[in-house]
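Q: Entry one of two.
A:
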Amino acid sequence: MENIESYDIVKILHIVSVMSWMAGLLYLPRIFVYHCKVAINSESDKLFQEMERKLLRYIMNPAMILTFIFGFYMAIQIGFEGSFWLHLKITLVFILAGFHGLLSKWRKNFASGKNKNSEKFYRLVNEIPTVIMIATVALVILKPF
């Protein structure tokens, strides 16, 4: 096997981190859809709360942090000058991080019995990370700017 460079290893770790983070960003709103259908303080409510908390704490939060660490390492290595596509990609990643924050807030609302959003709302917001993911992958592959 040829000499594997540290950049390639970081790129692998970045892709795995992004995949893990995206899985959570796509799955958590779907859990919220079903959580809307159960009575507050029921056994199902408690189960959904535990699932949501563990998904955020043990998968999504670490994956997001690692995505940023590995991504910024690679961005520094390739340089920022003349890479408008990279600036746009980073902007989209920050939007995903904001969405992650909203998911965390909504999870806390469920945990405190104060969810005000509907099943339909969560079905719609479930599409946000998909659209951003498609745009981000297109920017990385095509580098149009």
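Q: Entry two of two.
A:
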Amino acid sequence: MTALRWARGALHATAVTLFVLMVGLVLAQVVARKFFEPLVWSEELARYLFIWVAFLGWVVATERRSHIAITQLSERASPRLQRVLGWSGDIGIVVLMVWLLWFGMKLVDNNRDVETVTLFFNYAVVYAVLPAAAVAIGGITIARMRERLDQ
């Protein structure tokens, strides 16, 4: 359980750090544009950080079960139908994550030699969040499915 706790802490710390860095970059960009020379590279890096923050936020929201959900049907359903709906949703999520992992890996592979415009790394670094998020969300969902089996 300590590895899971460590991974959760690392995920949250990474998301917060990238968010703070993104906000700081945008603020520095505004100040530099107004009073100094513009930071040409900062807008591009802030955009890529936003992509990473969005996907890491998706993982955190999945882990915390804080996504918006329309529960009117499932709350009024019988316990058996609630289980069927829960399993169906989880299976759908796992299928989507397998698809995202597959195409995310292809996207990363296709962009290994494509350099960003103003930065020192290639687009594979930007797109690497897709398979990483797919593995994390798939793992969280599979763990919940295993918990449901134990009940």
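A: Comment on entry two: Residues 32 and 38 are 5 Å apart (CA to CA). The longest helix spans residues 2-35.
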